[in-house]
Write a structure and sequence with these properties.
With 216 residues, the protein is of the alpha/beta class. It has a domain of 148 residues: Vaccinia Virus protein VP39 (Rossmann fold, 3-Layer(aba) Sandwich). It is 29% helix and 25% strand. The longest helix has 16 residues. It is globular, with a radius of gyration of 16 Å. Bound molecules: S-adenosyl-L-homocysteine (SAH).
Length: 216
């Protein structure tokens, strides 16, 4: 990880990134404010530091990626997090999206299936001053039944289909944002209208690393 230094140069580049996100259609002030505040370069390997404020995904450990800023902004906007809501994130990865959710005032629960990322990110988030409620190592397909139900669920890897356990862990009226399909994925918003009824809205193509089953 980078030393936790955030210079005027970093902040300047970050402000330009936020302007770009606005040009690309992101409107949610709380999301833009959170992303303007969080030093994304802290979440990346120091060799990519100069590129941290480009609107691109970059490699992190274990063959995974830190999501593109536009994707983080888009998913966060769709999720429409309110303060104190319980949010489950599948795919903690670098922890950048986790930090955005923390800044939005959510009580964040996370699952990451790569142990190296789980351990490293848990430690680093605390060093940076972000305190998700609960991070765990495991298979996101199962969700976290012991902490359910959740107001919101965000999946940050590409899921071939909707994991049924996750839907069951959403409150009535709750929202799940999930990229569905192989490659590319379709960004999908699911709203749990009642015990049985799910409303589904689609928002175009995005590219994610695949959501893997435990056995893979
Ligand atoms: N939000 C992260 C995205 C990382 S990429 C960030 O911006 O850094 C997606 C992450 O999902 C990877 O870290 C990958 O290991 C994780 N992942 C893939 N399949 C998973 C599963 N079944 N359960 C939990 N995490 C999973």
């Amino acid at each position: 990880m980078n030393a936790l230094i955030d210079t005027y140069k970093h902040q300047g580049k970050r402000n330009q990134l936020i302007e770009l996100l606005q040009e690309k259609g992101i409107r949610d002030e709380a999301v833009l404010h959170a992303m303007a505040k969080i030093p994304r370069h802290w979440f990346m390997d120091s060799s990519f530091e100069d590129h941290a404020y480009q609107d691109k995904a970059f490699p992190i450990a274990a063959g995974q990626t830190i999501s593109q800023p536009y994707t983080v902004a888009f998913q966060s906007e769709l999720l429409a997090v309110k303060k104190e809501e319980k949010v489950l994130e599948i795919g903690t990865g670098s922890g950048y999206q986790t930090a955005v959710l923390c800044e939005l005032g959510a009580k964040v629960y996370g699952i990451e299936r790569q142990n190296i990322l789980y351990k490293r990110t848990k430690r680093f988030l605390e060093k940076m001053g972000y305190y998700p409620k609960h991070l765990s190592f495991g298979d996101g397909y199962k969700g976290l039944p012991q902490h359910a139900p959740f107001d919101k669920i965000i999946v940050t890897c590409g899921a071939p289909k909707i994991p049924p356990a996750l839907l069951n862990q959403l409150i009535i009226g709750g929202k799940m944002v999930i990229p569905l399909g192989e490659d590319p994925q379709i960004m999908t918003l699911l709203i749990r209208k009642s015990a049985k009824e799910i409303e589904k809205k689609e928002y175009g193509e995005f590219r994610f690393v695949p959501m893997l089953h435990e056995k893979n």
